[in-house]
Design brief:
The protein has about 475 residues and is of the alpha+beta class. It has 11 helices and 13 strands. It folds into 2 domains: about 200 residues, no CATH class; about 220 residues, no CATH class. The strands form 5 sheets. Strands 3-4-5 form a 3-stranded antiparallel sheet. Strands 8-13-12 form a 3-stranded antiparallel sheet. Strands 9-10-11 form a 3-stranded antiparallel sheet. β12 and β13 form a beta hairpin. The N and C termini lie far apart (about 55 Å). This is Carbohydrate-binding module family 19 domain-containing protein. It comes from Gymnopus androsaceus JB14. Keywords: Signal.
Length: about 475
Amino acid sequence: MVQFTDALFVALLAIASSVQAAPVALNKRIQQTTIDAVTPWENACDAAGGGLQCNPIAVTAASTLLAAAGNCDQQNSADAMVTLAKTLNNNAQMITLAQIFAQQPRNSPTSQAVQYCETAPQNAELNGFFQCQFEGSDQTTFVGGVAVGVLTTPLNPAGSCPANPTGPIANGVQLNTLVTSPGTPSGSSGAAAAAAPPPAASSSVAAAPAASSAAAADNSAATGAAATSSSSTSASGFALANGQAAQALNAQFATLTTSSSCTAGQDACVNGGFAQCVNGAFVVTQCAGGEVCAALPLVNSPGTSVTCTTTADADSRIAATGATGGLTGDGSTTAASAPAAPAVASSPAAAAPAATAAANNSAAASTSTSTSSFALSNGQAAQALNAQFATLTTSSSCTAGQDACVNGGFAQCVNGAFVVTQCAGGEVCAALPLVNSPGTSVTCTTTADADSRIAATGATGGLTGA
C-alpha cells in the first residue's frame, strides 16, 4: 500500500538466499483470526471517543484480510481508520495502528504471495506502506499463478514490509503483536523500496483472481466480528459497509447449528430460522412460508438487523448498498463470515390480534405485480402493524408463531403469551415493508431507519401512519 512515483517500485522477487519461507505445498490455505488485526485500533478508537463509529469500521477492515478481498480493500479500510482518527483530534495512536494494520499480511488461499494495491491511498499518512506476506507463502508467485517480475529495485528480503523489514511474518500472526511502530514508509530516507507490481504482468496483478473454492472456504472459515459495520460517517460510506457487514453475518450464520455456543442476548439465523440465545443455546423459530432468516443492512445509520424476509428482498437491500456477491458476498444465495450478531433481533411479519392480521393480509394481497404498487401497500401495512403493536402488552392474547413488537421489544408468542426480548441500546422494534415482494418484516432497528424505509414506499404519516 503505497503512493507510487516513477522511481518507487517493489516486487516480491527476492534473491534466493534471502527468501526466508520454507518450501510450501501450494493449495494449502494460510489464514488468520482477522478480527485480532483491528481490535487494538478499535480499542484506541473507543478510548478516543469514536463511539458507535469504531466497531463498524473495524468489522469491515477485518473482512479485507480474507483471501477473496480485493487488492485495495485493505488500504481502503486503513484510509477509513485514519479519516476517523483525524476527526478525533488527529488521534496519533489510532493513526499508528491504522498504519500497522495496512501492513498486516492477508490470507492466502493457495500458499502464494498476495498481490499489492496499485492505487495511492486517500490519506498521506499511508503513503509508502504495503502489506507483509506470511512466511509460508511462495514469495516468487502471486495468488492466481502470476509470476513476480524482475525490477531494478526488488523487495529484499521478500515478504517484508516497513514495519517488519527483516522478512515475512509467521503464518497467522498479527503484526500488531510484534511491533508498536509502523516503521519508515518506503520512499522515505533509509527505507526499503516501495511496493509495485511486476511491469510485465501489471494488468494481471492489478485484477484479483476469480474466487476459487479455496478462497470461498477461507471466507467462510475466517473469524469476523460483531454485527455492525461502517467505513465512513457519510450515508454513502456506511451504506456499503453495512451491506458488507450483512454479507459477513449471513456467511457466518450458515456455519451455525443449534449446538453452536452463544451468549445471552445474541440473535442469529440458524438452519434458516430466527434464533435467540437462551441459557447458552440457540432457540430457533422458523420463518413464515417462503421466507428465510437473514442479516440486512440498516439504511440511515451504521449497522445491521436480523430478520425473516424473502431471499429476493435480502438480496435487493444488500445490492442497494453497492455490495456485490449477493447474500453472503461470494455469490451464494444461502446464508454463509462473522460470529452471531449480539442483540439485533427480528422476525417474520407479525400476525398479532385481528387488526394485525388484517394489516398483513392487506400487504400480501396487493393485486399489482409492479414493485411501485406493492411498495406503497407494504409501507401502509407496516404502519398499520406498528399502530397495532402500540396497543399490545405481555398479557395480550396470541397464537403460536405470531411475532410482534411489545413495549418496544421484539415479542414471540410462546404457549399463548408474548415473550419479549428487548432491542439493543438505541434501537426499537418495528414492522418494516419488504422491498421485492408484498409483505412486511418485524425487526429491531433505529427509529430513523424504520421511518426512512416506510417513507421510501410513498406512505406518509411516519411509523404508524398517524
